# Entry
Amino acid sequence: MKSPAFEYLQAQDIADAMSAYDSAEGDAVYLSGGHSVVPSLALRLQAPALVIDISRISALSGISLEDGWLRIGAMTRHVQAMNDPLIAAHAPLFAAAAPFVAHPAIRNRGTLGGSLAHADPASEFPAAAVAMRAELEIVSPQGIRRVPADDFFKDIYETAIEPGEILQAIHVPCPVPGQMIGFDEIARRRGDYAMVGAAVQAVTTDGVADDVSIALFSVGDRPTRAVSAQAVLTGSPIDGAAIAEAQAALCDDLDPPDDPQFPAHMRLHLARVLLGRILTNLKVVA
Amino acid sequence: MKTEITLIVNGEAVRDVIEPRTSLADLLRDRLRLTGTHLGCEMGSCGACLVLLDGTPVHACLVLAVQAAGQRVDTIEGLNESGDIKDLQQNFHARNALQCGFCTNGMIMTAHALLSESTAPTRPEIREALSGNYCRCTGYEAIVDAISATAKQRATNAGAGK
# Structure
């Protein structure tokens, strides 16, 4: 299908974009990589009067280290998340998640910020952001604020970004010595939406896990932190017994919906299988 | 309101006045009559509309033409005329790697991009690269064969040239 007609503005900077949004009285969408917005226009899921192109705003680009955090501009493409050496070293779960995101040509164009702002509960980067305890830098006409990933994702396609605001950057705390990560998903075909997926990061001291962070996706209305499984794993070595306990604990963390393709108990089962796989194959990154 | 844009298509400067909703694929096909870029799903799933935007494969259905302003676009017609894909085309032909041909534009674009980055891709790497390209006729085996054969020929020719 073809998009309905709209006006188009290429914003020079963030102030320019927000003032255009304001003049359109909210009947506008921001366009960055366009790989969710353009199909939604073509399918006529939305029909804004104005499309504001923010893709050439320089403030949204760039990857840099700042006081123990990696700052990643929202316009960073998926392919950069996959190949950029700073991201590989300091935000390794984004690099690990990227090959699972769609297909090569999509990754050339889709953006990290776009994926997070879109907040599809089946997508990979939001869960990676939660597992890494990233913080999202949001600009509004009143100023800039940083929202922890745990508080950013609100519901299906809903985030802490208020109408007219722009996600400017993603901040990721740099890995500490001994940090390990794991990322995997179960999908019917590579590149399809996952039936279930998970991002894990863990720090062990003298063989004992003292910080475990687990976020699952495609299990509910947003990326879901597995609080009980984390608690079970913390304070002991991540061995077979601990992994089995964490897998069992997932029923306290997840309440997946039944859907026409497969029932809730199957999704919970797959989540347990996947978590077991990831925890037995954690990779040291720092 | 219509917008004027200029961009470089297959090496030539093109200027047009278009509606902002016009996708790059529609600009190429309907305005410039470059119909080698195919439109299948128009939502980024099938890969038939791939073009090179500043040298990188992208879905022409997911890029608004206005977003490509000032950039370089190369379509299958441009690659064909340049001769850069002659060996790929010959190997697709020789191995029956196309039947209806609808997906072939995207397949060639993906193969061309893969072979410019990787001189000896494995079959799994070729399959991974092709994961966003649907073919409903061939079952992919012959397509992977054709790309693999092209990579080997190029490696042999490069070796012979030294």
